[in-house]
Amino acid sequence: MATSLSPGGGEKMSKHAVAADDIAGLLARFAELKRKAQARTGRCFPIIVIQKAGLDGFWIHRVLQAEGIESHVVDPASIANSRRRRRAKIDGETLVRALLAYKRGEPRVCAMLRVPTPEEEDRRRISRERKALTNERVRHVNRIKGLLFSQGVSGYQPLRRDRRTRLEELRTGDGRPLPAHLKMQISRGLDRLELLIGQIKAVEAERDAMLAVAPVGSAHFADCEQPAPAMLLALKGIGPEFAVVLWSGGCRIILTTDDKLLPMLALRRHPGRAARSITTRGVRKPAIQGCERR
Q1: What is the dihedral of CA 216, 218, 223, 224, to 10 degrees?
Q2: What is the pTM of this model?
Q3: Which PANTHER family does UniProt cross-reference here (predicted)?
């Protein structure tokens, strides 16, 4: 559903139904709106589009920009709603009003996102896939432990390498061997768990390979002698996974030298401390609080 506000048509907004993947239909609708506005006012107006960041990703934004259309992607959480509509979905009219206020230059109206490049967007998938796999691994481990706990068995660790051997040695709380069907169910659960463990190792190997071939320097920091992930890994408290999250998810500014410690997200050089220490401000992630250079 597309909502439009055209010059010369008053303050009434129009709604247009367009299929989600019908880019040709969307561009044709824009051309028709532009033609009608020119017929009413005698002037040619540009098309300005706003859309929420969500499941559609950024491909529509890239298509519109390739067609020469000004497009903005907004963080839906940054658009203020009244208390009565706080839990309601942000509709098209709210987005149009937010865009009008943003173009007028009103402060703190909404937060427009910096759209990543296709390469940056694809680079984020490694850490996100690993997170999904580890969450699924936790669910399988808890499921196996829950099945055993119902028989009075505790202390079994499905992630240990001898999990198959220890499964054969388990006894119920009243001293009986595990029931046959329960043992087969747990064995199949271990099969799925081992598949997840292998996939996590494959993703981590892909992550480490990506960190190893990361480009040195950038357009803003051409004098950097080390790639950004290597400089992040030089900080205590930052491991490979968190370095990938920072580098691919939002790290636009990197550390250069001890004398020139630049902001990276919210990591800042504290003016009252030595050059070897940094502190955090405005960051809720406890993993990067109190990081120090090695």
Answers
A1: -40
A2: 0.70
A3: PUTATIVE TRANSPOSASE FOR IS117-RELATED, TRANSPOSASE FOR INSERTION SEQUENCE ELEMENT IS1111A
